[in-house]
Amino acid sequence: MKVQRRLANCLVLATATFLVLGSTAWAADDDSKGQDSDIQKRIEKSADVLSEIMGTPDKAIPDKVMSDAKCISVVPSMVRIAIGFGGSHGKGVATCRTSHGWSAPASITVTGGSWGLQLGGEAVDLVMVITNDQGMQHLLSSKFKLGADASAAAGPVGRDAGADTDWKMKAEVLTYSRARGIFAGIDLSGSEITQDKDETRILYGKMVPFEAILNGKVRPPAGTESFMAAVRKYSGQAREQGSLSEPENSASAAR
User: How many domains, in total, are found in the chain?
Assistant: First the structure.
């Protein structure tokens, strides 16, 4: 009788353990899928933001700025957060020009300061254009602050604007914002740009260094085509030239 009772208790315990572990695994899987979906939506939104901004001839980033860009990053729906006197926080993606074309997108986080107060706390879309090699090196470092580590300035607006100015000599990063349908250059000095390591792991299946991604050593994961196409189109590069070098990982390996 005691043996049977012990066997019954063990069976109940094993069943309960299986159910708990199973529900935990299912929940983790659902959470992973949810995070993956959030990133895909953010990448698609970044493509939409760039297309909508560049689709307005008289209020767009100048063609000259885009064609000479070393790196381009888009942060859709950056929002104000309460940190001390206030600040701003947003997630987006960045890509850099390489000898093989534009690199795979890298996940970034932008945390800003008082400029958010000037926009009334409304969510804004941000676009940052790295103009030279020095600015690109700051971005490749995976963490830098605008105005401190890298010089930054509100970018010129208008398809033909800036063609005959010295904007390229004045700033390593040109910054833009769109809020309430109004697109304009904005001073983001004090904002910090860092690699979003958590989203990098989700997007690539493992942690991949910022420099490896932006130097073109990995292939763009599935689901990033819309953003890559928008960057190629508006940077004046109709299609990628050549092919990527052997990647450290691929979309299939990451998944």
Answer: 1
Give domain status of residue 126, yes or no: yes
Q: Are 235 and 102 in contact (CB under 8 A)?
A: yes
Residue found by looking up tokens 């604007």 in the block: 161
Q: Is residue 89 part of a domain?
A: yes
214, 203, 167, 176: which is closest to 49 by C-alpha? 176
Domain range for 198: 57-254
Residue 35 is assigned to a structural domain of this protein: no
* DSSP bridge pairs for 129: 72, 174
CA distance 220 to 176: 25
Helix (H) or strand (E) holding 13: helix 2-54
Could you give the CA distance from residue 75 to residue 144 in angstroms, rounded to a whole number? Answer: 16
Q: Residues 78-135: pLDDT tens digits?
A: 766 544 445 567 899 999 999 989 999 999 999 875 554 444 556 789 999 999 999 9
Give ∠ CA 177-136-188 in degrees, rounded to 5.
Answer: 30
Residue 112 has a pLDDT of 73
pTM: 0.76
